[in-house]
Amino acid sequence: MEPGRQSVRLTGMRPTLLALALLVSACGGGAADRAADITGIVTSVSGRSDGVTVLVESDPSTPSSGSKAAVAVTTTTRISRRAKGGDVAATARELIPGVQVQVWFDGPAAMSYPVQAKALTVVIVR
Question: DSSP character for 22?
Answer without folding.
Answer: H
